[in-house]
Automatic annotation (TrEMBL), chains A, B, C, D:
PANTHER family: BINDING ROSSMANN FOLD OXIDOREDUCTASE, PUTATIVE (AFU_ORTHOLOGUE AFUA_2G10240)-RELATED (PTHR42840:SF3), NAD(P)-BINDING ROSSMANN-FOLD SUPERFAMILY PROTEIN-RELATED (PTHR42840)
Signal sequence segment: 1-17
InterPro entries in alphabetical order: Gfo/Idh/MocA-like_OxRdtase_C, Gfo/Idh/MocA-like_OxRdtase_N, NAD(P)-bd_dom_sf
Gene3D superfamilies: Dihydrodipicolinate Reductase, domain 2, NAD(P)-binding Rossmann-like Domain
Pfam families the UniProt entry points to: GFO_IDH_MocA (PF01408), GFO_IDH_MocA_C (PF02894)
Keyword line: Oxidoreductase, Signal
Protein name, entry field: Gfo/Idh/MocA family oxidoreductase
Ranges for domain Gfo/Idh/MocA-like oxidoreductase N-terminal: 3-119
Domain Gfo/Idh/MocA-like oxidoreductase C-terminal as annotated: residue spans: 132-325
Length: 340, 340, 340, 340
């Protein structure tokens, strides 16, 4: 049994809490939140205890792993404390909105040797994982063209947009990661065109809500990612990978399988109303993979370095949004750090 | 070049006329109709000549084949004249609404040795033919359960219903034929339940417009055919064949590939508005297969005997509709005739 | 909180145990099984206690409801004890393989006034329920033709087949219920053709594994149900309802949304491997509906009478399998009983 | 009856010849080709006459319209002769590979006042046209994001690539036109990333066979077009248009509607083997629209100016391929010309 403490009891913390409680190999021990009442409520719902302090959380005698779902600006600090205490860490992205700071944190954690994993939960979508399996098995031949669609149903609140780092760092970063994961290659160059169409007020932060990113991989293959904050038809996520001999697609998912025919039309279930309806099972799957790695003493399937690299792509993408030209992706500093 | 005369210049005759004119291996020579003006109009449209008389049609010096698309009560007579003149014959179903009379005509024609084919055009539907190819290749293993759906968009006029022989002889007979063709077996028993729902007036003729037929094949496999005269959603035709190791389906066809997503729904092109939109290409394909057989001196792919056997199933089905029990299908007389 | 005791700790009992434990409005108190070790194991897994005796189970001071998932031959007895104790009952189908005995039990339970529900879990399939909602709202007009497909992936063991009552009472009965539920009508007549194709040994019990049932509803609408014990392509369940103005379909469900294109083919996820993968969520949904009715003091959404009526259709269907003719469905005795 | 002469009797000329012969409102009179034998053969097949000279073709006493399907380098000259003779012209794209020369030709033709149309046949695809109709009706709200996929099954021969003007001018130009047509807006900026993956030898011409273009429309909406010369799975063309309130899609088309289920997979008809199987009906539809405009004295639905504007986008796209940055699209000279 892995003894877990949860950091953060907001919406996403609550999702993790339910998964921590349901996992048969987890002893869900503690919940910490800056708001003690919120921690107490979540803990009570799942038979865990609220933590009196962070010292109680980062105590390796009673805790084996932390799940960091607190606000973004605390991720680095919590990761460092876990590393110093020798406690495994599962962390929501991003590690730090500042890439240089994130790199320093990752260096620190890697040197500590603790198992650590960033929660790129989209990798644990059943269909995306099956698509990657087929690509990796060579079913479509050498990859030449990849398309990813990431479209949410509703614009985030302005207050969230302001601190999010922008659409590319906040939303598209999951798909930069998927592109790396599916192709096994690190993009070398990225171009982005974007507009603020659904909520023009975000333009004041230099942000966009509708964007198309084009990535070039080392061997010349191309990746296209479209990101949309607000559709009028629900949550839309799909991937297709074209190789030299075929195409494989993880199709947009319908919310059901009912269709009615009348007159000249056929009408059926559309897409999921919200991102959570589609994505929910991936949180438990990602956590399960982390626990399995802890149990077996193997490396977690998503590393902090993966987090950094997707973030490096997002940085270059954000630069391109302003420069109007393709920008090189800079991974170097991080690699140097790892080589030290 | 096969020199063709067309008998009948009504709606279906006009369809055949266009196909006769377009086929590169056919010399479309003559058109005959009881209404000379109608014959002249169709002939003029396609560069053929109206025939002055039936004697001109059944003249083997100038005509190699007749396409019989005249009214049902003339089919037998035209077939016999073709047989006597040594002219090949392509005939719309049925050969004769009276099965015994049909058997005599077929015996006569078979003895003459002329190439003859009944126009079971559904066999020439691209998807149905592909389904049969897969079944015949054993892709689903031994056939165990077959489902066929035959649903038209509009009730026929009462005047047509009165002389049609009833839904089972008029509409379902095509699917009795498909069942035989796909499975390679002759049904031994048939049960039918039916109702007059769309147009209750047809009840006065003992007819139905909504029916379900269940057929038993010699080896125990079962076939289900639902037939509907009037849907509210266009023309609906589909087949599925389940065997011991899999299922193959010729799906209901949409009229296009456009779909729109909005709110919680996805709406797209429905089925074809009418039977002709779906079935049109099969007429040319059936005719093409007949001409190919003439050119190569091989047997036409659908025989008059096929027409008789499908009709024998329709007879038993019509008896079952009244008796409320499964009825044996009687093919015997016809087989005797062939064995003479 | 409704205090539940579970009767039966076999496979399906274990499924119910997990749902009892996860439901926030249920206090999962007791587990009883003829094998005390099995009861203890299931109880331990979910924080319940094994019951020392049936007396402990049927004690209204500590138990509000029983979930009867024990062997079929105990259902009647458990239902009667629940009725006598004033404890609500949720029971797996059938109430009793002998229809007359089942009727007596239902009469007894109805007179007691306890809330009781039979677990026709297919009604709680999300897609089937949506289909029924649309039909009930009149989206397709008056119902004219219904098709239901019930196909499992594997023949049951011979030992199970022997005591199952036959395919129609064991498997198809769920779909007789769905037909009643969707149309709101009681079938008046049923014809069945069947064969033993997948496992010919079941013929010794007079049983079949491949069958087609045709039902007639009072207003003339027709229902067709095909039931298959063993497919070569997974678990296949679908429904379509045609009305005067349209069609609504609960489509066969794929196990995923991945498709690959290569050469001239497109290959994707097929159906679910087993019935449980498809049906699992419906058990929790059915239980939830029962608890909701208990909490609100309303009638459970599926009554024991529903169980009887579906069983009455199965009886007539079984008679038809032998007689080769359409058989009338006899509901009368039960109605008399209710009227007493 | 419009009297037509066909210029060019190669592959695409032959396609047009069949459509000219089949159109009831066309008198297909003449065929001209630099190879007189080729002209004679095509003319004979369709009851037309080979033209002895270009003078015979451009004679307004006997010819009302020319269909220019000769080699690209002759389009401008033939257009000018048609303009000078007062004969209507239907021309394959491009007008001239040199944009400035094309502009001069268009100015010349426009001043002449003859009806002229460029053959952007993809506009006449049934599904694309239906998609545009829905977009134009406002079904998805204001357009925000458009995706177009253009993927052929086979790399063209090197000799063709050399003179084609490159993938963007030769292949993608059809989709630049579709983007303009669907949105009703002229792109202001374009970025392209491309690679030579299927046939690296084309790199010597500075050409690519796999590319992603990103276009910005005046209001900020974005368009993405991926173009591929060689897939391993047939001909793939699809469009989706996302607006503020919904999405509409013209889906990739399957070559049939057959699917088989076996084991855990479902396998069905893939895409069309070649571009011609998919695109064939659009040639007749485009020609039909041109003839209708001639008959009714209205403007043809695709103008030469449309040809120029799509070509202007292709020019900017080709510049971007080399510069690595977004390039402005220059339409100005042409507009000036029109304003003179």
């Amino acid at each position: 049994m892995q003894r877990f403490a949860l950091l953060g009891a907001g919406f996403i913390g609550s999702v993790h809490a339910a998964n921590l409680a349901a996992h048969p190999g987890i002893d869900f021990a503690l919940v910490y939140d800056v708001d003690p009442a919120r921690a107490a409520a979540v803990a009570a719902r799942h038979g865990a205890r609220p933590a009196a302090s962070l010292d109680e959380v980062f105590d390796p005698r009673s805790i084996d792993a932390v799940l960091i779902a607190s606000s973004t600006d605390t991720h680095s600090e919590h990761l460092r404390r876990a590393a110093d205490a020798g406690i495994a860490a599962f962390v929501e992205k991003p590690i730090d909105l500042d890439l240089a700071a994130a790199r320093e944190t990752v260096d620190h954690v890697v040197r500590s040797g603790i198992p650590a994993m960033v929660d790129f939960n989209r990798r644990f979508d059943r269909d995306h994982a099956e698509l990657r399996r087929l690509v990796t098995e060579g079913v479509v031949g050498g990859v030449e063209l990849v398309q990813l669609t990431s479209r949410g149903p509703a614009s985030p609140p302005l207050d969230y947009v302001r601190v999010s780092g922008g659409q590319l760092r906040d939303q598209t970063v999951h798909f930069f990661d998927l592109a790396r994961w599916i192709t096994g290659e690190d993009p070398v160059e990225v171009y982005v065109a974007g507009s603020a169409l659904a909520d023009p007020r975000i333009d004041q932060f230099g942000d966009v809500d509708t964007s198309i990113a084009t990535l070039r991989l080392p061997g010349g293959a191309l990746v296209q990612i479209d990101s949309v904050r607000r559709t009028g038809y629900g949550y839309d996520e799909r991937i297709e990978v074209m190789g030299a001999t075929g195409l494989v697609e993880s199709r947009r998912q319908r919310s059901g399988n009912v269709v009615r025919y009348g007159g000249a039309e056929a009408t059926g279930d559309g897409l999921h109303a919200g991102w959570f309806e589609r994505v929910q099972p991936t949180y438990a799957a990602a956590l399960g993979a982390f626990v399995k790695a802890l149990d077996e003493g193997t490396a977690p399937p998503v590393t902090l370095e993966d987090g950094l690299r997707a973030q490096a792509v997002a940085e270059a993408a954000t630069r391109s949004l302003r420069s109007g030209r393709a920008e090189h992706v800079e991974y170097a500093a991080s690699l140097d750090a790892l080589a030290r």
